[in-house]
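#structure-requests
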Amino acid sequence: MKIITTFHWTCGYTWKKSAVNTAWCLLGCAIGDFGTILYFQLTQVPFPILGIMALAIINGLITSIMLETYILMRQNFNFSKALKTACGMSFISMVSMETTMNLTDYFLTGGAVLVWWVIPIMLIAGFLTPWPYNYWRLKKFNQACH
């Protein structure tokens, strides 16, 4: 692992690369998160809001890991190495993304509610939260999940 001793936040290439990595993570997280919230919203299954949000976070983490594992396997990683990489290298990013998306939903709608206007706000908040961490990790350790 190459560790850089001088660090700066001004590398345009690294910001772009980390943005792409963050967007892939966001896609994976959003699939599980929004899918869970939508399921409970459409079926009207009586379940506590915080329970739905916790399930949405867990499902978002799972779908993000699945998507990242698939992407890595397409880059010639074997399944075991792809899964380990997907779980280890971006877990902090995914947890911060999921938490921010669900807190945004909670503060704007009362929680576990998908309406057209809240989805872009959740996605923007979910993207911006881990992006600097992903930049730092890529710049400092030359590590990315994709």
